[in-house]
């Protein structure tokens, strides 16, 4: 089974990947949060350079994810990525953000199946790297997926990662796992499942229904419980000491990268991690008080002294 870490913009970037791998062992694969390709002829800039730096990702199997509807830019970026040593490039067809969708990218591209088909056929032919896709079921309705799946099945994709929600769901409601199952039945290429695997029971239910599952991508579940991949493989549950060591490593790595802004990153992580505690409201009350780094360190220390992990 391949267990991978989902791309999560602002969260599962190179800092998170490294600290998580150091504390809990590397996952089988990581996807970068979406990156906009540079203009044809230009290099990656700024944040993307740090995210893609082969040194920062050494020893980890990382697949860069691109967000674009421009085939020339995709192919150009794939060439740059090939030159950096990457072995696959992923296309984001799921981002639900209003600005992204309005530009016809991410989940917005799903509303234009003809254009999408032409784009994918073109990039699959010209990309120097194999192309995988991470998709939702559609923009508004599950019924849109029939047509999209027809399109995907006619293309030489390296892999199709299915997050079985539509854009209108954002992250609410339940993933429609049957449509993942339908994808497994039909696709001539490898398929991965993504969505709402938060605990071993979710994983076991997925595998019981679709034992042929070969790749599960984990997102919020790993943010809430960084030991989740180990637990899915029948390993020991998360301990408070481990969580504290992970937290401290993450904080110091973010502080080294972005100074005081590390506090915002940590609070975003806590918005998921608080769910692993008996009293998430109390955890959040502590954490939200810290504005500066020193205040934040004191507030976080209180959490680890006063609060208990659920199930511990
Ligand atoms: C804050 C946030 C940022 C995300 N950023 C990305 C992204 O950059 N690319 C992408 O394909 N999906 C992105 N996603 C979606 C996740 O990769 C994943 O599909 C989603 O969280 C469902 O999986 P989960 O239930 O395991 O979390 C993001 C989700 C969240 C909540």
From TrEMBL:
Top-level taxon of origin: Bacteria
Coiled coil: none
Family matches, as Pfam families: Dus
Positions of the catalytic residues: 95
GO molecular function, one term: RNA binding
UniProt keyword list: Flavoprotein, FMN, NADP, Nucleotide-binding, Oxidoreductase, tRNA processing
Cofactor: FMN
The DUS-like FMN-binding domain, residue ranges: 5-230
Function: Catalyzes the synthesis of 5,6-dihydrouridine (D), a modified base found in the D-loop of most tRNAs, via the reduction of the C5-C6 double bond in target uridines.
Family indicated by similarity: Belongs to the dus family.
Name the record gives this protein: tRNA-dihydrouridine synthase
Species, as recorded: Parolsenella catena
């Amino acid at each position: 089974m391949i267990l991978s870490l989902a791309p999560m913009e602002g969260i599962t970037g190179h800092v998170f990947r490294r600290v998580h791998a150091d504390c809990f062992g590397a996952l089988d694969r990581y996807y970068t949060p979406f990156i906009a390709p540079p203009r044809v002829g230009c290099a990656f800039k700024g944040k993307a350079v740090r995210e893609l730096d082969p040194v920062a990702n050494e020893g980890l199997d990382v697949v860069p994810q691109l967000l674009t509807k421009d085939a020339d830019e995709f192919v150009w970026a794939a060439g740059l990525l090939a030159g950096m040593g990457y072995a696959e490039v992923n296309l984001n067809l799921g981002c639900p953000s209003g600005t992204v969708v309005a530009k016809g990218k991410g989940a917005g591209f799903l509303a234009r199946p003809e254009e999408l088909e032409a784009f994918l056929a073109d990039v699959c032919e010209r990309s120097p790297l194999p192309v995988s896709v991470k998709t939702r079921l559609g923009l508004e309705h599950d019924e849109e997926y029939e047509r999209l799946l027809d399109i995907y099945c006619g293309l030489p994709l390296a892999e199709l990662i299915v997050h079985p929600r539509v854009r209108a769901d954002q992250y609410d409601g339940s993933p429609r796992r049957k449509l993942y199952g339908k994808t497994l039945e039909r696709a001539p290429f490898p398929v991965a499942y993504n969505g709402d695997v938060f605990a071993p029971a979710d994983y076991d239910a997925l595998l019981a229904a679709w034992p042929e599952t070969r790749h599960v991508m984990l997102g919020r579940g790993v943010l809430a419980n960084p030991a989740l991949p180990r637990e899915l493989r029948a390993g020991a549950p998360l301990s408070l000491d481990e969580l504290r060591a992970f937290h401290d490593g993450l904080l110091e790595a973010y502080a080294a990268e972005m100074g005081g802004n590390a506090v915002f990153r940590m609070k975003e992580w806590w918005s998921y991690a608080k769910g692993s505690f008996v009293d998430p409201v109390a955890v959040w009350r502590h954490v939200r008080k810290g504005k500066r780094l020193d205040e934040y360190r004191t507030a976080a220390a209180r959490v680890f002294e006063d609060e208990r992990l659920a199930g511990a």
